[in-house]
Write a structure and sequence with these properties.
The protein has 284 residues and is mainly beta. It is built from two helices and 17 strands. The protein has helices at 9-26, 87-92, and strands spanning 39-49, 62-68, 74-80, 110-116, 120-128, 137-145, 151-160, 163-169, 176-177, 181-190, 208-215, 218-224, 226-228, 233-239, 250-257, 264-271, 273-274.
């Protein structure tokens, strides 16, 4: 007959309790909320420029809308306002996947408290920057909201792609003189308003920035643009065609494209062209 070694009852009890505690330590407990709602549920949304900062008051912020997908009902809508965030924390500090990036220092956000009765699939949409209508971008994200389970800290982050490109000179609606040498000047910034320049956090050496001269829909010249530190703009000289060639005027266009991030921006302005200046004649 086979004999089994004697194991004290106390040891068996200890092992069983240790096993149970181990399971308990790794088990997930349900939320401690009433069984039936509605439940106040706070949702924080942050709209950021892709690869840059948060859209804050400098660029007019962003508009955020939360919609119940099943019913089409708008649950909340409003504006994101505040600061662009801590540039050092957002752009230069390495982060673990679960670490907050935008909420370690004050930065713009939209916050809404919803009264949810049940798990609710929603679409969260955003558009901005609101102070630059010609450059407004839109994006959206769908997710499931659980009643009583708040989404805070960084919250739901929505990324907008693009650049703010603005032709500074010649001024819009300024008439150009045929056969004149003119300097095209444009500023380039991220959608959060940060300057794009050489050797900066948003390094213009990695971005294709160039100008174009158009007659109607036809590009007649492409211009290489160079950064000017004094004006903090990119500029390039060009020659205005003769009035005979451009009776309807010309179009100047500046494009900025970052192939690595997908950010792209453009500005385009129509200019009338006047006849060339007459050389001064001596008075008889």
């Amino acid at each position: 007959m086979t004999r089994f070694p004697f194991v004290p009852v106390r040891l068996i009890t200890f092992l069983i309790l240790s096993f149970c505690l181990s399971i308990s330590a790794h088990s997930q407990t349900p939320p401690n909320i009433p069984l039936n709602g509605p439940y106040p549920t706070t949702v924080l949304v942050r709209v950021v420029a892709h690869g840059a900062m948060v859209l804050g008051r400098e660029v007019g912020g962003a508009r955020v809308t939360i919609t119940d997908i099943a019913t089409g009902q708008i649950l909340a809508t409003g504006f994101q306002q505040g600061e662009a965030g801590d540039q050092n924390q957002i752009m230069r500090t390495p982060h673990m996947m679960e670490e907050p990036i935008y909420s370690t220092r004050p930065s713009a956000a939209f916050t809404a408290t919803l009264q949810l009765q049940k798990p609710t699939p929603v679409e969260i949409s955003a558009e901005g920057p609101l102070s630059f209508p010609a450059s407004i971008q839109k994006t959206s994200k769908t997710l499931l909201l659980i009643p009583g389970q708040d989404l805070t800290e960084d919250g739901i982050v929505l990324h907008l792609y693009g650049y703010l490109v603005q032709i500074e000179r010649p001024k819009p609606r300024e008439a150009l003189i045929a056969k004149d040498d003119v300097k095209l000047r444009a500023s380039v910034r991220t959608l959060s308003g940060s300057l794009v320049r050489p050797h900066g956090d948003w390094d213009s050496r990695k971005v294709r920035i160039y100008g174009e001269v158009l007659i109607g829909a036809l590009v007649i010249e492409r211009l290489q643009m160079f950064y000017d530190e004094g004006s903090r703009t990119f500029e390039a000289p060009f020659f205005v065609p003769s009035l005979k060639e451009v009776p309807e005027g010309i179009i100047l266009r500046v494009i900025a494209t970052d192939l690595a991030t997908g950010n792209t921006g453009m500005d385009q302005v129509n200019y009338p062209v006047l006849s060339e200046r007459l050389s001064s004649q001596p008075i008889q």
